Amino acid sequence: MTAGKNPAIAAIDDARALLDTLLTHGWQQLHVVSGDTEIFLARDGGCANPMRVAALPDAVVIPTPQAGPETLVSAPHVATLEQALAAGTQVTVGQTVATVRVLDEQEDIAAPVSGTIVRVDAAPGALLEYGAPLLSIAGLA
Amino acid sequence: MPINRLFVANRGEIALRIVRAAQALNIETVVAVSDADRDSAAARVADRSIVLGPAAAAKSYLDPRLIVHAARESGCDGLHPGYGFLSERAILPRLCAQHGIAFVGPEPDVIDALGDKLRARAMAGAAGVPLVPGSECVASAADARREGDRIGYPVLLKASAGGGGRGMVIAHNGDEAEAGFHKASAEAVAAFGDGTLFMERFVPEARHVEVQLMGDGRGNVLHFGERDCSVQRRYQKLIEEAPCAAMPDHLRRQLHESAVALAASVHYRNAGTAEFLFDVQRQEFYFIEVNARIQVEHPVSEAITGFDLVQEQIRIAGGAGLSVSQQDVEISGHAIECRINAEDAARDFLPSPGRITRWEPPQGQGIRLDSHMSAGAMIPPFYDSMVGKLIVHGRDRADAIARLADAIDNFVVEGVPTTLPLHRAIIAHPDFIENRIHTRWLEQTLLPGYGKKAA
């Protein structure tokens, strides 16, 4: 958001701000055209993407990956990491994979998917900021 | 013990202001940010920033546990709450105390007492501060009518837990008092979760004056003169001045004495503001409330006294006494501040967040700008829309108005609409120049014509 900043990062910041706006205002869709940039955001049930009509003939089909997708579990707010399950651990959706602490209260972090923990990104005792990567789970292929 | 590392639990211009004040005192700073403020000016200037949570204030700036956890874990021994957000919530200093962090503000019990308008009124009365004729809490519509008849109409029904004009209703007769009771009570429940109401005499043409206070927590309290904040829209201040040029000296002295007596009676610690209604016709002032924090408009008091109030706040929180005595505080000249919001005044003050594409503020002697904005900066849509405060200091009120007019004319902002053109129109109005304004002047006199002209 600063002058002279990488325009790609600035664009992502803008997109994030727009997405937050859409979610907090309960709108169905949002279409912004600014200079040579155009962004369309919609909820399920929102109207069709007006940009897509023009883009369809050239659309490229992205192949589905063979391996299960990796899901990143990140810190839900600033917190200190107490413990996390080790890489290689098999987990099922809803299972506690990590425990964080805010002041003296502990909070369990649940696995959003079933799979195998493939990476742990933080060490116990570390202060995690909001959105900081905690661990990654490879879903079942 | 002096503070070594200060946690800044706020955003926008005041976060930057606090960081700069701490840096001037050689104190390290850690700034709390939400996801939307990762690249804010305060975050860039501070030694460190910590992302508390997502953009929504309820999950970031308004969560005291997250704030105190981040402060403690980043090794901070002091915490400045700024204004707004949690600045007047006693839970924040209580948590700070539990975790060995010095809170830059009053004791939590004092915040609680002053935050309850009925208790604050009782404290003011006990300290001999003039009160607007009013009631204890009113329990029913019939009570409201009886109290209204006794006080004399028009009367104001106010929420005990209230602020910012919410839960406030004017009644001109007994029927309106009964109807107003139901309306104000419902609004108060919705806004504050507490429907307790009280009533007071409504002064149709009042000025808003307030006294800047600073206490050491041991009963010593200084004042830094008064401010006049009568240019308001929906109880929100737009322009603030210091001193109040409409108040005669003998009343000004009484005003300062009242404010100091009230603060001293509770051994007030750190910065606070006692707010009063000034009934120009009756030449009387009445206590409204105490704001237990630094206020948005503190720079006009700094301009006319030459003291840095935020630095003084930080020193006091670190255990130092007051750095000056009352006779060192001399008032010089006149200062005016305008709050610049990213709002479209011609479209009912529609908030207009977005990206600033051009930002060229005026410079020169007697001009100060407190702002976190720059060309390319983003105004997120999640918080208030203030982009900065333009403050001018002149020899006298007329000189300050002339400087402010020049400063606004030389202020270039593009990318979002701002309230600068409105400020220019206000200070060019004969009523403002001749200082005949009151708290409803803007809405009654200037805005109706302004909207039409702009459209």
From TrEMBL, chain A:
User: Can you give the residue ranges of the Lipoyl-binding domain?
Assistant: 74-137
Span-the-membrane segments of this chain are none
- InterPro entries, alphabetically? Biotin_lipoyl, Single_hybrid_motif
Official protein name in the record: Lipoyl-binding domain-containing protein
**Which organism does this sequence originate in?**
Sphingobium cupriresistens
Automatic annotation (TrEMBL), chain B:
Membrane-crossing residues?
none
- Boundaries of every ATP-grasp domain copy: 121-318
InterPro entries per the UniProt record, alphabetical: ACC_Biotin_Carboxylase (IPR051602), ATP-grasp (IPR011761), BC-like_N (IPR005481), Biotin_carboxylation_dom (IPR011764), Biotin_COase_C (IPR005482), CPAse_ATP-bd (IPR005479), PreATP-grasp_dom_sf (IPR016185), Rudment_hybrid_motif (IPR011054)
Q: Which reaction does it catalyse?
A: N(6)-biotinyl-L-lysyl-[protein] + hydrogencarbonate + ATP = N(6)-carboxybiotinyl-L-lysyl-[protein] + ADP + phosphate + H(+)
Q: Which positions fall inside the Biotin carboxylation domain?
A: 2-447
Does the record's keyword annotation contain Cell wall biogenesis/degradation? no
Q: What is its EC number?
A: 6.3.4.14
- Matching Pfam families: Biotin_carb_C, Biotin_carb_N, CPSase_L_D2
Give the first-level EC class, as a single word: ligase
Functional description taken from the UniProt entry: This protein is a component of the acetyl coenzyme A carboxylase complex; first, biotin carboxylase catalyzes the carboxylation of the carrier protein and then the transcarboxylase transfers the carboxyl group to form malonyl-CoA.
What is the official name of this protein in its record? biotin carboxylase
- Native species: Sphingobium cupriresistens LL01
What is the organism lineage in this UniProt record?
Bacteria, Pseudomonadati, Pseudomonadota, Alphaproteobacteria, Sphingomonadales
